[in-house]
Predict the structure.
Amino acid sequence: MVLQTRLHDKPTELAAACQPLSKQLKTNHSKMSEIVVSKGGKATFACELPDSSFTGKWLQNGMPLQDDGKRILISQSDAEHTLVLTKTKKNDEGKIVFKTDKGNVEVPFELTVTEPPAIDPIKFESLAQELNDLKTGSPMVLRVPFSGASGITATWSFNGKKIRSYDKQFKIVTTSSETKLTLEDFQPEHCGKYEVLLENAFGNTKVPVEVALSNVSGVNFQTMTVPGETVQKSSTMIIEQQEIPSKPAGNVKFDNMSANHFILSFITTSKGGDVESYVVEKSSGGNNWEQCAVFKPGDKTVQVEGLVVGMRYTFRVKAKNAAGESEALESRAVTVQKPSNPPVLDAEVVEKIKGEKNLKSGKDFRLKIPYTGFPLPIAQWSKDGKKLTTKGRIVSETSDVDTSFTISGLNATDSGEFSLLLKNKEGSAKASFKIVIIDVPSPPVGPIEMTKVSAKEMSFSWKTPTADGGCSIDGYMIERKDTKSPGWTPLTKVDPDTLSYTATGLTQGLKYSYRVKACNSEGESKPLTSQLVLASGPPSPPTAPEPTKVSSTAISIAWKEPTCDGGSPVTAYYVEARQDGGEWFPVPSSAVKGTTASLENLTPESDYEFRVCGKNSTGKGDWGESKKPITAMDAPEPPVIPESVKESLAKPVNFKAGDEIFLKVPASGIPKPTTTWSHNGKELKDERAEAKVVKGVAQFRLVDAKRSDSGTYSVIVKNSEGEANADITVNVTGAPEAPGGPVKILKASSKLINIGWAPPSDDGGLHITQYVVEKTVCGTDDEWSRLGKVFSGEDLRMTTDHVEKGKSYKFRINASNNFGTSPYLISNDILAGDKYKPPAACEAPKISELTKSACVLSWPEPDDGGSAVTGYLVEMKRIGRRNWVPQNGGRLVHERTLKVKDLSQGNEYQFRITAENEGGSGPNGKESEIITAMDPIPPPSPPTDFQITDKTDKSVSFSWTSPSDLKSENFKGFAVERCLEGREQWEKCSTTPIRSSKFTVCGLKTGDKYKFRVRSYNDGGYSSSSGVNEFIEVKQLHEKPKISFDSSLGQVIEVVASGTLRLMASVSGKPTPTISWRKDGVDLDKRGVIQTQGGVTSLTIRNLAKSDSGVYTLDAHNPSGTIQKAVRLVVKDSPDPPCNIKLGEIQDDGSLLITWDPPKNDGGNAIKHYCLQKRDAYSRSFQTIKDKITGTNFHVRDLKPGCTYYFRIIAENDLGRGDGHQSNLLTVVQRRAPLRIERVQYGKINLNKAASINLALKPVSVKERSTAKFTCAVMGKPDPEITWYKDGVRLRANNKYSMRNHYGVCTLTISDCRHRDAGIYKCEALNPTGRACSEANLTVIAEKF
């Protein structure tokens, strides 16, 4: 074996430099030169300073560099400083800085050292020795070790063809340091050239391997390393020469002259070099100045410390930078005042006044609080958060040592929270206290409201007083006086929380007045007195009316008399009703003498409410309203579609396109059924469709009918009692489609043209009656003339001899049926000629040298049709006008260029050219682009920041920044251009202008290399270009897929049965990953809706069932890898039936051991217990043997010999009971005993058993608009009759309530629960031997918005 290795890895050499623009001493550190170099390459750093006086040192990541004469070379040539790293290492990465000794100027560079893939020749050669014994039939293992930055990928190929992962004869394994190709059975056809391509972000390496079989097997290795890309980004640093700043301008002001807060303020500006700081100096006399403060430019104030109280000072300010100090700006002389401090209240006094102060009404309140502080503060008082005005009874005074507060003649309005804010310019202090004025309370708030008046009692109410007098109210004293009594009589004293009272013991016909006084520990308030009220009134409300008989057309109600007649007998009742929450109306129109009433002629299935009031001699009383609406409906019936109707619907129904499809199917049913319509087996989801049930008829409307609406329409009519269905065949007719093309030329000469065509693909559902054929001379498409008609059954062809030699013609054909006419089928140009043809149409002329009054046209020579062109007719049209005007005086132009004059500035024009030869005039040429007569416009500025944003195997995406001075009125767009490697010609990537600042070039070939550029253009032409200088290879960017689920989802999702599962995840990767959803490892087919768009995929499954539980996995795959993420779904529901019921041996005492296994699916909740039931083989209903069995076995006793039984096991969890599992038939055979014949004694056997509740109802709580479900288990012999009640009112099955009795398990389902549905629900079981009841409460929780 011969090993040959060639490493082509030339170290890169890179230089970065910074050049000065002007001699200044200021650096712009936001700009930095960036250098990217391959490991082992040479890097040169150079910077040029203003002159040679600037010396300094080089730093690498903060550490100084020393010249070692080998790897690190440092030099200075005049003002230029250079650092050379002859062979870069990985640890050289980081920040390289040249720092000057003068001015501490720093010139920064950023160095990045890359590591492209590399081969270790020694290790490579040692591994190659393993192939010396390569033979036919033995394994061949090619191993290539490598090193380099992470992210290295290996791609193997054989004889120039890439080895794919699905090629089973090869096995490729790549680790972080080696790639290995294994061929288990080496054969002669496997000889050839193997090559591995190692790539990372910084370069690639190719390793070709020649494998051949001869007397001596040989393997030739060869490596080619492509160095990583070297990038240099240099910048220019500005170094400025500083000058001494000028004298500050403005005035020095004194904001505060206190010794402890002496503050100067000023407006300062200084010209010359940049100011680094300002220096403040002080002098107490003479010329002795000393520095007392320093501040930065932009500071508005500065504080001076160390001044003596009473001393007189003068201050001056200087501007300072590295070049020196400016002249001084001097202030006036000022005297330092004594120290100023914020006010501080006496802590002992503040602590003492805290809390609540109880003061007697009428007294005076005086408060004095000592304080310290200078200057004299201002006292601001407030009560209950509102500022107090200190005048009249309220006085506030502040001296140098204290502040005082006085209130004269306290009253109840003075109670409240008082606050003091004492402040001066140095700060503030606060204190607060509460004053409670002790007094009798104010009177209760009136007026006294009479809520109920009758001959025996009066009820009235009042409101709490506005003030409690500083003490809690301990009650209210109530007194009464009638028109015959001289004074007030105390009735009672009620609790402070009671604000109403009912007075009894009245005398009918007398007038009464009441008064109320509030009481506290200080006494009673002034009274609140009512007006005189007569002791007589209307009766109280009757009881709520209850239905006694209900049908779809009439409702009868009854009620009980009022508990109070108001002091006079009830003479009549008034009954009112309302329909579906509407207005109340009388039932009947006159008063009712008894306690019953009826309402007839009702609207079926409407809800009615009733109310009743009594009347006596004083008038009508309050209404007593029904507790809930009563639905006018008959007994439930399943939907029915008569057979006669189905037979009539079997005939097809015809409609015209554009008309409305209206279908009717009579369907009766109670409650009112709903309908579902489908078209050709698919549910209709069309915005044009409307379905409803009106008066027992299922109606369907579909507006704007189309041909595609033809087919079979199916309707399912359904209510709670059952369903019915019917099919209707609909045929929609319309105009036919265009005749079949293209138009065939059967014969064409200078005398005639014969054409043919095919019939339409869709005749509109009707027979084609005729075809109409028209023609026109090319160039006059708006002037068509009719040739004739072809009728049904005739040959589809037409001949015309009305043609002129040398002219071209077009033909068009349409088809007609009884509905209408089809679109036209139009032919290509057909020439009527023999020898010479007129010239072809000229191309659109090109326009140049455009000004406001003239332009130059030029055009290429057209096809001459076999005879040389003799001249060209040039025509012009002004936009907005119809006529084309010949140019050149109407004469033919013999050259292919013409200058057009006499244009009007600002108008728009188009041009066209017509060629002539011996065959005649050719068709009119193509129209030119529209131009505006104006002087030339300069081209726009070029775009900037052109960069590549994405690449695939067939496309490259770019973005750029629009020019800042772009003028939208002249701007046309951007043009992206490309140049293929090896060519010099640039070509546009888009035929239309690009208006945005990004673009994707598609249709490229993988592996090709291009240069790209972008230019902006307007009416004045194209700008210079902005682009990428190096060639870009077209290949896919690779990025491993990433999946991100919604952060709110956990690893396990629990959803109640019938709910909806929504899983959403964002998926990214390059190229775009292929996305698939699986459940328990199996691809999801029809279950659920999968949507993927814009990198987001979602899975939605509605009406979840237990079978939907499992592990849902999202897979994302692209060539860069595969990723999976999974979540586990648990659908909570009632459990499955138990399984594997085993019946043991029947014992002598008639007992039997039954065992079973738990359900395969527990519904997501642990099994609480089991219910065991049995039934006789000749009976239809099961009876419960034992409920709430916690284990999986039970001993059944008292089985009767000779009887046959079925047993059923039902499992139950927190969500309810599941379906039962039935055992095999068991026959109880009595073991034979010795035969004994005894006298038979006959007796009467009573098999009856009283009704009982085995499983009671449980309370239910649901959200508003949800469905509630009550369940209980009953038993008895004979089977009990089940009745449901709500709040004592019997319930009947309708759209609201659904009732079911399944082998003793009774269920009440309440749909669309509202607040009015809350209450006590009762299930009553009744048979001739007994009665049993069970009650439970329903709570409806209001929706939160």
